[in-house]
Amino acid sequence: MAGAGLRAARGDGVSEAFDLARRASYGFFFRENLRFSDTDMVGHINNVAFAALLESGRTMFTHRADYPALPEGVQMVMARVEIDYRLELHWPGQVDVGTRPLSVGRSSYRLGQGIFRGEDCVTLGRTVLVLIDRATRRPVPIPDAQRDWIAREITSPPVPAILFP
Amino acid sequence: MAGAGLRAARGDGVSEAFDLARRASYGFFFRENLRFSDTDMVGHINNVAFAALLESGRTMFTHRADYPALPEGVQMVMARVEIDYRLELHWPGQVDVGTRPLSVGRSSYRLGQGIFRGEDCVTLGRTVLVLIDRATRRPVPIPDAQRDWIAREITSPPVPAILFP
Amino acid sequence: MAGAGLRAARGDGVSEAFDLARRASYGFFFRENLRFSDTDMVGHINNVAFAALLESGRTMFTHRADYPALPEGVQMVMARVEIDYRLELHWPGQVDVGTRPLSVGRSSYRLGQGIFRGEDCVTLGRTVLVLIDRATRRPVPIPDAQRDWIAREITSPPVPAILFP
Amino acid sequence: MAGAGLRAARGDGVSEAFDLARRASYGFFFRENLRFSDTDMVGHINNVAFAALLESGRTMFTHRADYPALPEGVQMVMARVEIDYRLELHWPGQVDVGTRPLSVGRSSYRLGQGIFRGEDCVTLGRTVLVLIDRATRRPVPIPDAQRDWIAREITSPPVPAILFP
Question: What ipTM score was computed for the predicted complex, to two decimals?
């Protein structure tokens, strides 16, 4: 992956290894229902619900059977999220939340996400997750098993895509 | 309503036409994901999330293709809900929300619901919905088309059960 | 307390020691904001948000400084909630959630709640809480210290009312 | 915009007119309760709840008495949000959500936000809001009255700070 030809320019000038807005960029999707309680008085799905949908896809992504278990005493927490709202959503319906790692650092890694209704990308998400010590709440290095798994996900081709559940 | 043989005693002495805790009592199910944001600091699915799951099943039940459209100027609103928590739920997973009318009155009707994880009934819900005028916010009689549809759902056998989506 | 003059008849024939719909019946209030994300596409505060508001008042009630700490190894969980929606709420605004015990049994006790906007009672809540063993998840007897505290709250006059925070 | 002396460097190189992490940078605060239902199974306030808290502060900011009413037929919608999680929050408690415009363009403007617990900044938020036509859902120019109001808020000194409610 990661070739210059696939890089998409972001507004702030950071280039990314794949186009988060293309369904074909993802190999893992989690299908979510829009709930009536996700709507707001504007009549559409409230922006806060998108954060819940992205979290749902993200937590299921790292809950996959092949994701290496973290050692005792550490946990992943969110350091940052960016959400780009591209299209409005209306109840009822379902969306597919695609999730894929973008990069990995010493104690943190970045996930890219796209919420799709059919082929249409309605929302983009970018999340920075940090590994911390449960007791001290301070960052610790990501173990090699997780780092290797993440690195493989960054570069592996997304085909065939898997849709859960 | 239904035969006495099907009536199940509630704690408060009100008998019901079918056993809300049996999966076989329902003909309509809506499958919902448990979201990570549905959990609370106790470690299980928060009681508020059950209200959202019941609403999700309820709104999809009345959103079915064959449910007769309400006339302009009126809408259904909730007057009362009762939720019995029987089993705890933990993330991740899916539940099937069964929904079926229990009785119908002049301006209101009652829905019975069961949240199931496989065959296990984890939660019961009973909801009173009232038809109101959008402008005055006062109760109005349920039109015959809706009343007939609801009455048919109360007495129709729940087989074969339909699972959405 | 408990005089026949104060008893209010419920729809199901159960009488209660005080009128849950009167602001003067409560000695503890927790003031909550209505959030924009509490609204739904009907344009009012969604019914699920009321469950969150009631929980907020309830958990703050038992979080008060003088509530006796539970022993290790047990916790209170919800067994049942009933919510009566009397008036619609609209964003923005604040509500005062009044909470007061109604009765206490061997392993469980009942809380009565009223959500008020000024003097108007917009919602009633009745909750059954059960004390369970954290490991077995089975009911256990409520310790005397908690039972005495609850019994005192049931019968103590609600004046002067305290508003938090 | 503001003096260079007030500019704070962001991680991505964009400078801002004031330091979003300093309580003294804001002139408008909205105080919010942390709700029990805002917690998650990690034991802290869930990241999705922060999106709700930021929205709560943001919607109250534009709901102020002196904010010029938008013309019929247009509405503000979110185009983007960035949330930086700096400190964990635990139930119960209150936070003060500070909100202040950062910049204004033709059809959109940016809001900066800080969630504070006392003097500690627990979370930063940056939101892009776009004015759209209600019918076409396409961006339209921000009217002069709103633009002037926003521009004044960007440059006006934040003292004395106002805390709602």
Answer: 0.90
